[in-house]
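Students often ask why inverse folding is considered easier than folding. One informal answer: many sequences map to the same fold, so there is more than one right answer. In these notes we will look at a single instance of the problem. The structure comes first.
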């Protein structure tokens, strides 16, 4: 059970009201459902009456539409949309897609290859929407478009996305299946795709219901100090950083965990030097639009900071 202090619970109440006001009905429902399931030390009856009524009115089940999400991808603005394969589930077909930034105008220009993945957990819309938002910010920034060849996998678990579940259609946590000869169709498609590509940087967009602030997984001192730390700092203007000494069961320092989960998604082909690999986590208990803003800001900061690191010839 996750414990919230009275002050934190007050903030959660405020954030849930913000979600309702912003039309974030699915996230309002999902967070309230976690309280109804007893995952926190607070009961539904402790919420203000208007939030309890809104939750009762939201019904017992919610479904999202992946087709609607795909239609919202910024396809015309600086990216090509490419289908990497199709998933079949319950008689429906789900195209897995990537956004690939346009090649440079000059053949003499060099661009640093970066990969951004989101939505491997279907109940984490923060990353999915932040990937959309960051694509728009990227396309508007000459400094970024000139420096980077960006590939975005905006929603890697479409069945989980539609069902608002962490797992895929067959009940598997996909982020424990990589590098393990998994039979899950999503993992096979993503591995076949990533095996052929070399990246300088790899960013995973996630979200966490137990944490009361932002944090990141980032291995290696320069990656944590020069990329993850400024990214969290910039985003902390929107949502505070989780400064607990232990986060998600791992030792952490200033919101940074210096390790990675076995079986989690990451770069498959090894470049030299090894690519930087950062996983960003935003807390579920804050309004969705704030999480999206915080996460897009963190991603943007990582890429701006990496330009400075690269220009110093720094070896990660
Ligand atoms: Zn996740």
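Output (designed amino acids):
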């Amino acid at each position: 059970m996750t414990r919230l202090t009275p002050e934190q619970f007050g903030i959660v109440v405020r954030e849930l009201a913000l979600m309702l006001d912003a039309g974030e009905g699915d996230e309002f429902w999902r967070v309230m459902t976690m309280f109804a399931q007893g995952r926190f030390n607070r009961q539904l009856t402790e919420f203000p009456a208007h939030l309890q009524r809104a939750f009762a009115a939201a019904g017992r089940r919610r479904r999202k539409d992946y087709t609607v999400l795909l239609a919202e991808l910024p396809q015309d603005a600086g990216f090509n949309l490419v289908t990497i394969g199709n998933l079949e589930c319950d008689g429906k077909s789900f195209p897995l897609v990537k956004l690939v930034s346009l090649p440079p105008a000059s053949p003499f220009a060099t661009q640093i290859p970066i990969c951004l993945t989101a939505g491997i957990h279907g109940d984490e819309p923060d990353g999915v929407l932040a990937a959309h938002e960051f694509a728009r910010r990227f396309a508007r920034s000459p400094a970024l478009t000139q420096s980077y060849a960006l590939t975005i996998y905006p929603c890697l678990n479409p069945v989980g996305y539609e069902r608002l579940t962490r797992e895929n259609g067959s009940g598997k946590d996909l982020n424990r299946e990589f590098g393990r000869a998994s039979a899950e169709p999503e993992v096979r498609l993503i591995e076949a795709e990533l095996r052929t590509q070399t990246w300088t940087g790899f960013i995973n967009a996630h979200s966490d219901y137990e944490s009361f602030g932002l944090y990141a997984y980032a291995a290696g001192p320069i990656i944590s100090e020069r990329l993850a730390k400024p990214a969290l700092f910039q985003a902390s203007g929107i949502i505070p950083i989780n400064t607990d000494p232990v986060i998600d069961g791992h030792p952490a320092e200033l919101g940074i965990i210096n390790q990675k989960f076995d079986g989690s998604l990451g770069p498959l082909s090894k470049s030299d030097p090894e690519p930087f690999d950062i996983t960003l986590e935003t807390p579920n208990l804050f309004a969705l639009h704030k999480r999206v803003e915080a996460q897009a800001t963190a991603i943007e900061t990582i890429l701006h900071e990496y330009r400075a690191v690269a220009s110093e010839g720094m070896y990660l």
